[in-house]
């Protein structure tokens, strides 16, 4: 046998001797376990409000992909009413843990000062068929929306008056939303618009139960005009603020029991939302009637 070849063979035997193999195997196993433990700790760690850690970001993206699919495959009329527990039922143990941790946070920790509205579904919802708008020549639709009956009647009266006085109207782009849909919308904005910052997302999107869109009585409506102006990105709140429809609301909405919830520097710690108006149940059954 060639001398060098013989040396190589001996060296090869040494490398793969049973003792060394066990050592390598244990090292690899140790590294894998350490990796799993680190990932596990990262998933279950308390969320950093300014940016979720890498594992939580990974998990949240997975949750969003599942929920997007889930919501899109529902019949359109059921989307904004989607049940939170139904959405949770689609998730594995890691996903469920991250999502439940996020939604268990009291939004006061982010500077939100509004109340918890409700997690109960109102029993008097009116179904509103899609309303069409045209934005830069492109057709758009509000999709099917829901609204408690009393506020919807006042909305109709208000729009009749606006059409009469201004020749314009506003459509309901978002009315009642279930806590499930609110959770879905929050994650969507968290990932797509706020780079996984819970603090930033909570400035514009309420956590489930904390949205006026979930109030069974004094609920909120988000408006969009016939040209598709709603103030949502890439538009700005100022785009909506400049609308004659908005200026009209500032003067007349209270006559129909609607109030701007989030003006600039509002007491609730929420960003300026000129499109978001809530209905307030009149103090007595007859108040507000004079304006019909
Ligand atoms: Zn709103």
Radius of gyration: 27 Å
Class computed from helices, strands and strand pairing: alpha+beta
Query: Mind summarizing the main beta sheet?
Result: 4 strands, antiparallel
Largest beta sheet: what is the strand line-up? 5-6-8-7
| Helical fraction | 40-55%
The CATH architecture category of the largest domain equals 2-Layer Sandwich
CATH class of the largest domain: Alpha Beta
Helix and strand sequence: HHHHHHEEEEHEHHEHHEE
Please report which band the strand proportion falls in: under 5%, 5-15%, 15-25%, 25-35%, 35-45% or over 45%. Answer: 5-15%
List the domain count as a whole number: 2
Number of helices: 11
Write down the overall mean pLDDT: 89
Principal-axis shape: elongated
N-to-C terminal Cα separation, in Å?
108 Å
């Amino acid at each position: 046998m060639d001398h060098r070849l013989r040396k190589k063979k001996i060296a090869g035997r040494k490398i793969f001797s049973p003792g060394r193999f066990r050592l390598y195997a244990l090292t690899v196993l140790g590294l894998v376990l350490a990796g799993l433990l680190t990932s596990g700790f990262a998933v279950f760690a308390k969320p950093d409000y300014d940016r979720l850690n890498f594992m939580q970001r990974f998990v949240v993206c997975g949750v969003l992909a599942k929920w997007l699919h889930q919501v899109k495959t529902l019949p359109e009329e059921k989307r904004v009413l989607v049940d939170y527990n139904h959405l949770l039922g689609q998730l594995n143990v890691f996903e469920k843990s991250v999502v439940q941790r996020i939604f268990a946070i009291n939004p006061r920790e982010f500077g939100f000062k509004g109340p918890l509205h409700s997690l109960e579904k109102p029993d008097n919802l009116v179904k509103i068929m899609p309303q069409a708008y045209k934005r830069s020549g492109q057709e758009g639709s509000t999709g099917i929306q829901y609204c408690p009956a009393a506020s919807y009647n006042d909305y109709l009266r208000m729009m009749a008056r606006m059409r009469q006085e201004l020749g314009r109207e506003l459509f309901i782009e978002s009315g009642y939303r279930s806590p499930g849909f609110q959770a879905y919308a929050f994650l969507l904005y968290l990932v797509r618009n706020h780079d996984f910052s819970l603090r930033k997302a909570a400035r514009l999107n309420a956590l489930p139960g904390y949205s006026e869109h979930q109030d069974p009585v004094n609920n909120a409506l988000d408006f969009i005009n016939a040209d598709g102006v709603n103030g949502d990105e890439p538009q700005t709140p100022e785009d909506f603020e400049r609308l004659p429809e908005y200026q009209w609301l500032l003067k007349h909405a209270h006559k129909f029991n609607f109030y701007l919830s989030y003006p600039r520097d509002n007491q609730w710690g929420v960003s300026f939302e000129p499109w978001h108006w809530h209905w307030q149940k009149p103090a007595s059954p007859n108040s507000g009637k004079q304006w019909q």
